[in-house]
Amino acid sequence: MLPYFPQLTWLIIWSLAHVLALSALGGDLSKFYPAQAVVERDRYALSFDAARRCPRWVCWRIDGAAKAADRKGMAFHADPSVYRSPAASDYAASGYDIGHMCPAGDMTSDAGALKDTFDTANACPQLPALNRGDWKELEAALHNEAFTKPVLCVCGPVWTTGRSALIGEGGVAVPDAFFKIAYGGTCAVVRAWVFPNKAGSRPLGEYSVPLAAVETQTGLTFSRSPIP
Does residue 100 have an active-site annotation? Predict the structure, then answer.
């Protein structure tokens, strides 16, 4: 049984002033994620749960540029700088995809940023029907919004049971569900969704939940201030 610490809360504080001051797509994302982040990349940041071998959360600004970097030859790999970052082989023959949290498709204007999304620290076990279905549909919808208005996202796993299924030799925990929160885009309010980690083909609106519901399920606290 994996250790579970309900008393811990990871506070995510978003600064509106810093959003307005962000000068470029690859600007200083440290203004947008918590101090406990253990992995920093050029375009995203995350906090890693070494016990479950999954990220607690991942934070990024969607790259709405039309230019597409070449994904050829890119594959998931362990990050040696992240303690207990799983090997890609831990997912082999498991029945689960190595599911991007920060999507590769949101980083297509720069080859280096795109490659960074293939760190296994940026992934969780997702059922293929979800990863390639409704979850992907939401990724595409938010990416399309970013062509005209800035979109900031935070997403991660949801654990609703005391005992998680494990995959791979190293024991990667399988989340029960996934949350995503979007700031900005075409909506004036903060939006939140929770997707059970199972097959489904439902309208995206059916996954929509109040932000408080995500906080209850994850122990995270989020800002209510949307990006102007």
Answer: yes
